[in-house]
Amino acid sequence: MALDPTSDSFNPWHLKPWWCQPWSIVLTGTGLIGGSWLLFHRVWLTGLVAIPLGVWMGFFVLVWPRLMRQYVAESAVQADLGTTQSPD
To answer: What's the CA angle centered on 41, arms 28 and 33, to 5 degrees?
Structure first.
């Protein structure tokens, strides 16, 4: 599969396994948050669970795909210019 950022069919989720897809991330996060409520029935404890899980879900479902598309687009531009970055 070619990483073509100019193509509308480029989907960064195709690079991830099934257990790291948006549906599994959201399902796991909401399940853990709901499970903490069902288990403890404490708003403050569920909030402590929900905050880091919400950040985790938000990053991987909303931010990561955008960053990946940007990275692939910048890599394609560099490849077009014939420049490469040397590893430091």
So the answer is: 15
Q: Mind giving me the DSSP string for 38-80?
A: HHH--HHHHHHHHHHHHHHHHIIIIIHHHHHHHHHHHHHHHHH
Please tell me the distance from the alpha carbon of residue 82 to that of residue 87, in angstroms, as a whole number: 16
Query: Contact, 18 vs 86, CB < 8 A?
Result: no
Q: pTM for the whole thing?
A: 0.75
Whether the Cβ atoms of residue 18 and residue 24 lie closer than 8 Å to each other:
yes
Give the DSSP letter of residue 21: S
For 51-78, what is each residue's pLDDT tens digit?
A: 999 999 999 999 999 999 999 888 888 8
Which residue in the block uniquely carries the two structure tokens 């996060």?
A: 29
